[in-house]
Amino acid sequence: MSEKKEITLTINGKQVKGKEGDTVLDVCRANEIYVPTLCFLEGLSNVGACRLCVVEIEGERRINPACTYPARDGLVVKTHTPNLEKYRRLILELMFTERNHFCFFCAASGDCELQALAYRYQMDHARYPYTFPSLPTDTLNEFMVIDHNRCILCGRCVRVCSEIVGNHTLDFGRRGWRTLVVADLNQPLGQSSCISCGACLQACPTGAIFSKVSAYRGRTSEGKVIRSLCSLCGVGCEIDVLVKDNNIVRIDGANLTQLKGQLCDKGRFKQVFNETPRVTTPLIRNKKGDLEPAPWDEAWKLVADKINDYKGRYGANSIAGFASSLCPNETLEAFAKLMRNAVGTSYIDTLDGSSFRVIAKGIDASSQNGKGLAIESSLDVILDADCVLVVGSNPLESHPVAGCYILRARARHKANLIVIDSRPNTFGFRADIHLRPNDGSDDTLFGVLGGLIAKKTKGTEKTMRFASLAKATQTTGLDKDAIRQAAAMLSNAKKLVVIYGDGILNKNPKTVARLLDLAKLASKDGLKVISLKPKGNSRGAWELGIANTNGMAKAKPRLVYVLISDDAFEMGDWVAQADQAEFLVVQASYRSPLTDCADVVFPSPIWAERSGEYISLDGKVGHSQKVLEPPSGVKDDSEVLNKLAKRLK
Amino acid sequence: MPKVKLATSWLDACAGCEMSLLDVDEFIIDLAQAVEFTRSPITDIKEFPEVDVGLITGAIGTTEQEEEAKELRAKCKILLVLGDCACFGGVPSMRNAFPKEAVLRRAYIECESVKDGKIPFSREIPAILDKAVPVNAVVKVDCFVPGCPPRASDIKYALSELLKGRIPVLPSDMMRFD
User: Fold this and answer.
1) What is the per-residue pLDDT across A368-413, written as a single tens digit (0 to 9) for each?
2) Which of A179, A218, A540, B129 is least enclosed by beta carbons within 10 angstroms?
3) Residues of B with CB below 8 A from A134's CB?
4) In this structure, are strands A144-147 and A170-173 parallel, antiparallel, or unpaired?
5) B-chain residues near A109 (CB < 8 A)
6) pTM for the predicted model, two decimal places
7) Nearest CB to B169 within list A103, A110, A124
8) Which fold has domain B4-95+131-163?
9) Which ipTM did the prediction report?
C-alpha cells in the first residue's frame, strides 16, 4: 500500500498534521485534541448519530460532526467555541429527557459515557420536558438485558454486531423518535440469532445493554483492571478482567474492535463465577472409604510411597499420567518432568491426546508429508478468505470467536461458506452449501470433490485418491448436484481456508489426510488449513510432547495420576476407566465425578488464580496473568508436582 | 451582618437530602451563625415568610406540592433545589411510565401487603398529578445541586457559594447523579 498523503489543518488556531482519508475527528484524536463523542467507537464505521462531536469549519454555513467530515488540506476547524458548547449541552439535555436516564438505578452508573459527559458539561438540570416513555425491557437472553429506556440510539451495538462480530443480529426497527434497537425481526434477544458474545454490551456507552452476571457488582473505579488471556479454547483472546475484593466483576475484550478483541459467551460471561464446589485442601480416602481433608505432607508422602511401591513391584510403566490441555506450559512441563524423569513412565498423555494423534497422523499420511502442526495457518487468514470450508465443526459453539471471523468474512466481502458434517450442525444454516454425508463417508466425499476439482483445473498431478460421482452419491447419500455445486465453489475459490474440528478429530486419521489432500488440490495461493483443537493450550501441550504419539491402548496402569485442574472435561466413560486403576490421584480445582472416585485429591488453582504461557491453536504464544488470590490451602500446580517429584526414589 | 433567611420545602422525596444536609458536620455551626432557618423540618413553622433563599428537596407529584413550590418561589429571592428528584424527577418519576390510576390501584389495592384496600378520596387529601416532574418544570429555579442524595460536600459548596453572593454550579468533578 502506498503511503497516504500528509495534509495540514488548522485546529483551534494550531497547525496539525493528518493523513488523506482521515476524518476531522481522526486528526483531532491523533493530535490529542479532545472532542466529545458518544456514537464514535474506534474501529467501527462513523455515522454521526449523536452530534456531540460537532465542530465549526471555516466556509461551512452550519456546524458539522467531526466524525463524518473528511479532513482536507488547509481546513480551519474550531472544536470548542461557546456556540458549540451550547449545542453540546443542548444535545445532552435532549438525550436525558428523551428516555429514562436516571442514574441512581442504573447498572452502568459510574461507567457510563453519557453520564460522564453530563458531568463534564455540568448538566445539573434539563430545560426540556421529559417524555417518560414506557419502552420494553428484554431480559430473555441468558446473560444480557436490553433496557430500551436507557438507549440513546447511538448504534454502536448495531455496528459492532455487523462489522466486528459479523452476525448482524441487531439493527434499528421503527422510525424517528420511536426507533428501537431490535434483534432480527424484532424477536427477544434470547430467541434471536444472537450468539451472546456480548460485544454490543461492551460497546454500549450507557446502561441500555448490561450484563446479568456483572450488573451492580462493582464499578471500574472501585476495582482493578488486569490484562490477561482467555485460555478456554485456543483462539487466545486478550481479556481485561475487572477485579474487586478478590472477585471477578467483569470480563471485557481487551481491544473490542481489533483482532481478537471480541469475546464469546464462555469467555465473557461463564468464566465470571463458577459455583461448583472447590477442592481447597488435599483429600485422602480413609478406611471407611470417604475422602477426608489431610495435611499436604501426608498427601505427598502417601502418593510418593505408592508410586515408589508400584515402581518397585511392577516397573515404572505401571504408572500413567494424564494432563489437561487447559494447563499452561509451566504446569505441563512440571508434569512431564514428574512423570518422565522422576517416575520414569512412558505412559503420559493429555486428556485430548486422541485428537492430537488423529491430526498428527493425518498430516503425516497426507500429501503434505509430515511437517506437523507447522503446516497450519494463522486464524487471521479467515478474514481475507473468499471461501471457507468447515468440516465436522460448529465453530460458533466450540471456538465462537473463530466462527465470527468466518461470519465477518461473509459480511464484509461475501465469502462463500461450505459446511460438511455428518452430524446435525446449526452452522450449516449460515452456509451457502451444507453437506451432510452419511456417517463414515467423509473420505468418499473428499475423494469425489477432489476428482471434480481436478477435472475442472485439468491438473495432471494426481495427489489423492478420487472417487466417482455415481459411487459417491450412493455412499454419502448426497445429491449429485449438491456435490457438483460444492466442487464448483471450491474450484472457483481464490483464497480458500479449510477448517476442521471435533467431528472428524475423533475419527480415523485417514479422514484428516484425505481432507488435507483435497485442501491442497483446491488451494490456489498456498494451503490454509486450521484444526480447531479442543482446549486452550492443546497446541502447547502437544508441542511439549505431553500427548502420547502411540496412544495409550497398551497401557494397563495400576496407578493413574490425572492433572485435570479446572478443565470442564466431559468425563463420561473416562471416569469408569480411571476408576479401574488400583490407585487414582487427581489434581483438580473442582469436585467432580472424577475426584469422587480418587484415592488422593490435590487442590489446584483455577485459570484466574495462575499465570502462565499458553500457545493458541494457531501457534501464537500468549501469557495469562494471575488476577485472583487462590483460596487458602490451594498451592500452585507446579509446586505440587515438583515437591512430589522430590519425594520419589 | 444580618442573617440570611432560609426556608425549606420537602416535597416528593425521601429524607436523604435532609440527612445529607445534617452530614455537613461542623459546618452546621457556621451555617447556623450565618443563616436563620425559618420554615424547615426542624423549626415547625407552617407558613413561608419572605426569605432570601428557598430550598426545595423532592419532585412535584401532587397538587399541594405544586402549590407549595409556587408559594415558596413567590416568597424567596433565590430558589435552590437539592437532589435528583428536584433536579430531574428522580425516584418519584419512576411512576411516570404508568397512568396515575394504575399507580394508585397498585399502591392501594393490588399491593401484596394490602387487604380489602381502596383508593383514598377526600377533598382534604391532595390529588396526585399525572406525572411527577422536576421543580423546574413548575417554577423557575436559580440553582441546582443534583445527587441521590447530594453529598454533604456538594451541599456545603453550594451554600457557601450562596453565602458569598454567587450562584453555584457544581464543578464537573463534584457532580454525581447517584
Assistant:
1) 766 788 889 999 999 999 999 999 999 999 999 999 999 999 999 9
2) A179
3) 97-98
4) unpaired
5) 177-178
6) 0.92
7) A124
8) Rossmann fold (3.40.50)
9) 0.94
